[in-house]
Structures are given as C-alpha cells and as structure tokens.
Amino acid sequence: MSEIIRSEINEEFAYSGIVEAGDLVFLSFCVGNVGAPFEDQVHGAIDNMEQRLKTVGLTLASVVKIDVLLRDVWNIPEMEKVFKERFVHGYPARKTISTEFAHVGGIHGLQVQIDAIAYRTH
Question: What is the extent of the structural domain holding 115?
C-alpha cells in the first residue's frame, strides 16, 4: 500500500480534512454559505467539496460515496434537486442523516454538512 497522506489538519479539534489512502480520498466537513437559505448551503457544501477535490487533482465526477448530515430531513427533496444539477457525471452512493449541529448560529446557522469519498483512477 502506498503512503497515507493527511492534509487540512486541525490540531485543535483533532481531525484531518482530507485523507488520501491508496486510490481513495476522504473529505470531511464540506460546508458553505452557512446562515444562507438551505439550497444555497447545499450548493456551498458542494462548491467546498469541489474546491478541495481540486487540490488533490480530482473532480466531482470522482466522488463515489457521500454522507449528508441535515438539520431538517424534510429538506431532502430540495437537496436532491441540487444533487441532480451538480452530480452530472453520475450520482454517488449516499446516506442522509438528521442531526442537531453544535455550531455557531444555532438553528439558523449550519443546515447541511457533507462528507465524501472519491476514487482516484490511474
């Protein structure tokens, strides 16, 4: 197995934002447009994912699995509408979970967070 590469390391909260392990790349905490309307936050999270994937030479087309954390599961149809717009090269496998975020802004702050696994082809 090749070397495991960890980047976007957060010492304060003890996590790596990106971990490259063999052909797989793991991204955590993809968020964006916090405090904006829900649809804008979904676009922001995917924009964040796309930018971070670019730093390791990948695109949204490389994403094979996502875990979506939502404050309100009734927003799933709106989330899926955005996914249809953004994942044009095929949809990743997905798990959607409802959670209460412990985040600045409370109920009007963070509404969606996405973690992703991408596959690097050679």
Answer: 4-119
